[in-house]
Write a structure and sequence with these properties.
The complex is a heterodimer of chains A (about 190) and B (about 290).
Chain A (H helix, E strand, L loop, with lengths): L2 E3 L4 H6 L5 E10 L2 H9 L13 E3 L4 E5 L2 E6 L9 H11 L3 E4 L5 H10 L2 E4 L5 H7 E8 L1 H4 L5 E16 L6 H18 L2
Parallel strand pairs in A: 1-2, 2-3, 3-6, 6-7
Antiparallel strand pairs in A: 2-9, 4-5, 7-9, 8-9
Chain B lengths: L2 H17 L3 H13 L3 H20 L11 E7 L8 H15 L25 E7 L4 E5 L4 H4 L3 E5 L4 H16 L7 E9 L1 H11 L11 H14 L15 E11 L4 E8 L6 E5 L5 E3 L2
Parallel strand pairs in B: 1-2, 5-6
Antiparallel strand pairs in B: 1-3, 3-8, 4-7, 5-7, 8-9
Helix pairs in contact in B: 1-4, 2-3
The chains are: A alpha/beta (about 190), B alpha+beta (about 290).
Chain lengths: ~190, ~290
């Protein structure tokens, strides 16, 4: 089992290639559309944590309070392509090296991954119970009042969270692009035999 | 039976639905795991199967998107509690939201306000069928947004015929790729009007994975599309592989001569469902 601890070792991340799978022990933070927009909108001194140290998780958790403490019910990934319009700027400005979500991202993000030695990983869509089980504690939450539960930055302390499958790497490879090309070819072949 | 008991049973039905996938779905996912050769596909299926185990053992919603609470109810015309059924379903959804808990997923499309309890105008979504008898069958299918977003309705030129139907379905499965969380179960509604085709496509998902349509000609069409869809190579969660769909389910209605609606409505691998039978003496049986 390949386990990465946080703060993340940027050199090791740069070496990851598509098809590699790994786990994380340490801190991950959630960020959806509104969270990206928020952080890109504020000044550096207002940014409440260092996004370069931890993995970013595209996720709007199901979460509730039990005896005054936040408890995660289920926390699977959300569709990453919605964040495509922010991600290259986010990586550039905040130095985030591991992005976790589902469904893959586009050309702009792929370029940014290459430029900054970062990776995009797919975490299995719908596997929210498995992730919730790996979350030991909700360490903090930022901009909760302003952004609401699904959009806020949740800081989760996780133990062996994963598996995260690298589907876009710092060498410019994208499994999503490769599969899309194959599917196009297969579709033409299948349709010609109907 | 009193209203409280039925409500309690409905909450437990919703709990069962959101914390597990149907037995046949789980079997099909395990078969897929044996079939896949690529590591990426296996990583996804392993996580899916482990996630299903966690959901079951910890009674935890398997996906954070606990869906739009959707019901297909066949109610007997002599069912004693027919007058209370709608209200009881609404109440059970509110209670399930608090106690399980479910993610609040009902938003006013104009104001963007979340009702907070999964109820609202026309929500929970209830489809009614009045049938003979004195029982009620309540199908619960919480439907996630990611797969619902990949639905498609094509008002096909009737001249394209069955070949056109197959092209539309396969195009859509290729187009949606990893987005609806494959391997999916693809519901297809043919004929009727636009509304009926979409409703039939969703209703078709109620038939257990692996069970063919009672009519041979529809069963054959399902099998052909299942086989061809799995030749596309989308694979589990779109990372490539042999399993793009777990099943294809078709329902149909007669159509207008000028129209041939083709509805495609995928369900994610997290095929969460429950089915309750309320008999005339008030006994509630969990059928599945």
């Amino acid at each position: 089992m390949n386990i990465f601890e946080t703060p993340l070792n940027h050199e090791k991340i740069k070496e990851l290639r598509v098809g590699d799978a790994f786990y994380i022990t340490g801190t991950i933070f959630t960020a959806r559309d509104a969270a990206h927009e928020k952080l890109l909108d504020i000044d550096d001194e207002e940014v409440p944590f260092d996004p370069s140290k931890y993995a970013m998780f595209h996720c709007g958790p199901a979460i509730h309070k039990e005896e005054g403490k936040w408890k995660v019910v289920s926390a699977g990934p959300t569709t990453s392509i919605r964040m495509e319009i922010f991600e290259d700027d986010f990586i550039e400005r905040f130095g985030t090296k591991v992005i976790i979500g589902k469904g893959g991202m586009g050309e702009r993000t792929l370029k940014a991954l290459k430029k900054h030695g970062a990776v995009y990983c797919q975490y299995t869509g719908g596997a929210g119970a498995l992730m919730a089980n790996a979350i030991r504690e909700v360490e903090d939450v930022y901009f909760l009042e302003e952004l609401g539960i699904p959009e806020a930055f949740w800081m989760f302390r996780v133990e062996e969270a994963g598996p995260f499958l690298v589907t876009m790497d710092s060498a410019g490879n994208s499994i999503h692009d490769d599969v899309a090309e194959d599917v196009d070819k297969n579709l033409e072949r299948v349709k010609s035999h109907l | 039976m009193n209203k409280g008991e039925l409500e309690e049973n409905l909450v437990e039905g919703i709990r069962k639905a959101v914390t597990s996938v149907t037995e046949e779905t789980e079997d099909a996912l395990r078969e897929a795991k044996d079939r896949e050769e690529k590591e990426g596909a296996q990583v996804q299926l392993d996580a899916i199967l482990e996630n299903i185990d966690v959901g079951k053992s910890e009674k935890r919603p398997i996906c954070q998107d606990t869906g739009t609470q959707t019901f297909f109810i066949e109610v007997g015309e002599d069912f004693k509690w027919i007058g209370q059924l709608k209200r009881t379903v609404d109440e059970s959804v509110k209670r399930a939201t608090e106690t399980i808990p479910l993610r609040p997923n009902a938003i006013d499309p104009i104001s963007d306000e979340n009702s907070g309890d999964n109820t609202g105008r026309f929500i929970p979504s209830i489809h009614w069928d009045i049938v003979k008898g004195d029982e009620a069958i309540i199908n619960i299918i919480p439907k996630g947004g990611g797969s619902e977003n990949m639905s498609r309705l094509e008002m096909m030129t009737p001249g394209r015929g069955l070949k056109g139907v197959k092209e539309i379905v396969l195009d859509q499965i290729a187009e949606m790729a990893g987005k609806p969380c494959p391997p999916t179960i693809v519901g297809i509604g043919l004929g009727g009007g636009a509304d009926l085709a979409m409703e039939l496509a969703k209703k078709a998902l109620l038939r257990p994975v692996g069970e063919r349509h009672a009519e041979g000609r529809i069963a054959e069409l399902e099998e052909e599309l299942l086989e061809k869809a799995n030749e596309l190579g989308v694979g589990p969660m779109g990372v490539g592989g042999k399993t793009t769909v777990l099943d294809v389910k078709i329902e149909y209605a007669h159509r207008h001569p000028a129209s041939y609606p083709v509805a495609v409505l995928p369900q994610c691998w997290a095929n969460r469902q429950a089915k309750l039978k309320v008999s005339s003496n008030g006994e509630v049986e969990v059928v599945r």
